[in-house]
Amino acid sequence: MPTEPQKKSLFVRAVRAIVSLGFTALFVGAAAIAVVVGAGVLGERAAATETSQVAPAIPVSAKVIEIEDGYDVRRSYVGQIEAPKTVDLSFELGGRLDKIYVDEGDAVRSNQVLAKLDTDLLIADRDRLLATRDAVTAQLDFAQLTVERNEALRDRGFASQERLDQALSTQRELIARIREIDADLAQIEIRLEKSVLHAPADGLITRAEVDGGETLGSGQVILGLVQDGAPHVRVGLPLDIARSDIQQIQIKVSGQTYQATLETIRPDIDPVTRTRTALFQLEADAPLTLGQTASIFVTSRIEEPGAWVPVRSLKEGARGTWSLQVVDAKDVVRAAMVEVIYTESEHAYIRGTFPPGTRIVEQGPQRVTSGQKVRIIGGGV
Fold first, then answer.
1. What is the secondary structure of 282-342 as a DSSP string?
2. For residue 55, what pLDDT is reported?
């Protein structure tokens, strides 16, 4: 039978258990009430909130690319303006320079007298030969009369054939002497003619090496002349440029553009630049200064299938690869790998596999990713 203390211990335990069960029931009830209330509040909020919409498609500008058979490459080279012809002027014969009639920068006409040598000795020698010729001519006249008289006497039997032959021989000798004198006179006339320096063509005197009074050697340069006419451009071109590509080209000098025609290409190669020298003739009225720098533009056709696209439409990838953002028939973006062949200003010529009607994202390809749906704006089809 339990004692009194034991009875008290059992009573306390019972009370504690009842209290604990009460608190538990109270906590569970409060939690249930909170769940019910929270669910109702969330339901009310969900009912009050509109259903979220699917994100709209990003608007992009698209372009249909066109496949071409090739592209044109425009390259520029530097050349120099030259005169059509430059001449170093000199006397063929030596002598003392008597007078020079032009200065540097003077414009001259064809056959204009530019300078003269001293010709006093030649003129004196010519006068001497003329006097000698007159004397021999007089002797020849007497010899002619002698021959005629001897022929008449021989026919009548009063003169021998020997005397006639002697008269004929004297006549022939005098004729030969006159021919010799005439040859000397002709030589003097040639020397007198060569003692006058004439302009070979219309042009401009570029330099004068003498002032007058000097004793010149044969062939010594005294004047420089540049011939009038359409200026030329000399330029070195690479070996891979075809002659057909440079028959007619454009040349820019000091911001002005001129048409030029190919005149000749040297057959040899410059040992320093490893280029061929080409000479172009410019327009005849081109107001250019000799020695000016000119830019030559050469357009070459490269036969290589591909397409032109804006540079801004290209997207650079890893290790130098490039891609385009292509829009399929369902307006979904797909990535297409391409090879960039040539770039020019804001456009690039690319190679890739594109079906007809392929559309590319023309600008801002970084704004979209593969698999993303877009909305085409602008001129894209």
1. E-TT----TT-EEEEEEEEEE---EEEEEGGGEEE-GGG-EEEEEE-TTSBEEEEEEEEEE
2. 58
82 SS3 class: strand
d(CA 349, CA 324): 13
CA distance 71 to 195: 62
Cβ 331 vs Cβ 376: under 8 Å = yes
Q: Fill in the amino acid letter for 356.
A: P
Q: In degrees, to the nearest 5, what angle opens at C-alpha 362 toward C-alphas 356 and 363? A: 165
Max Cα-Cα span within the chain: 221
CA distance 259 to 245: 14
Domain limits of the chain?
Answer: 60-69+304-377, 74-84+229-302, 86-116+201-227, 119-194
Band of residue 52 on the pLDDT scale cut at 50, 70, 90:
very low
Query: Are β-strands 374-377 and 58-64 bridged in parallel, bridged antiparallel, or unpaired?
Result: parallel
Question: In CATH, what number does 60-69+304-377 get?
Answer: 2.40.420.20
* pTM recorded for the entire structure: 0.54
Tell me the per-residue pLDDT of 238-261, one tens digit each, with 9 for 90 and over.
988 888 888 888 888 888 888 889
